[in-house]
């Protein structure tokens, strides 16, 4: 499989060995060409650039959603508004039926849905064009400019999620489509939790900085994380003897006797009467 390089006309030569690259069986030549152009532009971005692109895409998504839903609501009520102007309300009489709140609700829904879809696409396209024009005036953001040109405005939300993720973990950036193999379809991608947010970071578990801390038990590390020292923890008596609240060892035989005496005491007055009646 041969790697294609960008040509003067902006196209990329496509590998011809379809047995090695399954993407050639799933994508059209134009789609594969677009994926290579996106990879070539995306690999030049650093984490800061990715964060800026994600922030700009989020702003575009908010504006698109706000304008789109506003247009949908306005067009949804458009048939009702026209009907109100054409047919003013009449006094309610037995012969005059009460008009519905929404005139032709199914038609209104279709008009509103169509307006939402069309407005979202047009607003997103306009926002992308404005962003590209603004980046062309900034020579320091040439890499971002190439990335915006390679993105499809129809998939703005997908690109937002991608750049938000790769800004935090650049290892999730897309790979070269020309090197994609059948084995790549079955690769396992593991995203380990952030050390700053994981509970082991707060407790100090698994982060032995020295041999003394590494020899501590997990409970000692938990005590240290909560402001205590292992020496302040209560000592466990040896030889299997349990300690009393005063810290003195107790005799198991005495404990059994005390337990039997506690169980023999009546819990209520009725229990005391029953015990008295059972005595000979």
UniProtKB/TrEMBL annotation:
Residues 228-261 have a biased composition (Polar residues). InterPro entries: Pup1-like. Residues 1-25, 227-280 are annotated as: Disordered. This is DEHA2B10230p. It comes from Debaryomyces hansenii (strain ATCC 36239 / CBS 767 / BCRC 21394 / JCM 1990 / NBRC 0083 / IGC 2968).
């Amino acid at each position: 499989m041969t790697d294609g390089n960008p040509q003067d006309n902006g196209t990329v030569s496509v590998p011809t060995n379809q047995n090695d690259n399954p993407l050639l069986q799933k994508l059209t030549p134009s789609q594969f060409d677009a994926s290579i152009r996106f990879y070539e532009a995306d690999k030049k971005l650093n984490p800061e650039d990715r964060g800026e692109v994600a922030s700009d895409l989020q702003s575009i998504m908010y504006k698109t959603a706000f304008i789109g839903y506003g247009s949908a609501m306005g067009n949804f009520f458009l048939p009702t508004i026209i009907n109100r102007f054409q047919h003013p309300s009449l006094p309610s009489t037995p012969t005059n039926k009460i008009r519905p709140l929404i005139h032709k609700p199914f038609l209104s829904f279709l008009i509103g849905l169509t307006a939402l879809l069309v407005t979202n696409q047009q607003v997103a396209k306009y926002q992308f064009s404005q962003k590209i024009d603004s980046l062309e005036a900034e020579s320091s953001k040439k890499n971002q400019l190439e990335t915006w040109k390679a993105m499809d405005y129809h998939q703005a939300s997908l690109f937002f999620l991608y750049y938000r993720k790769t800004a935090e973990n650049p290892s999730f950036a897309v790979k070269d489509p020309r090197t994609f193999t059948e084995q790549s379809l079955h690769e396992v991608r593991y995203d380990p939790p952030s050390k700053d947010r994981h509970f082991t970071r707060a407790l100090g578990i698994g982060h032995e900085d020295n041999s003394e801390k590494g020899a501590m038990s997990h409970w000692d590390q938990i005590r240290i994380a909560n402001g205590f020292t292992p020496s302040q923890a209560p000592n466990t008596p040896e030889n299997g003897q349990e300690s009393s609240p005063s810290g003195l060892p107790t005799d198991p035989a005495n404990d059994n006797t005390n337990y039997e005496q506690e169980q023999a005491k009546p819990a209520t007055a009725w229990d005391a009467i029953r015990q008295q009646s059972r005595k000979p």
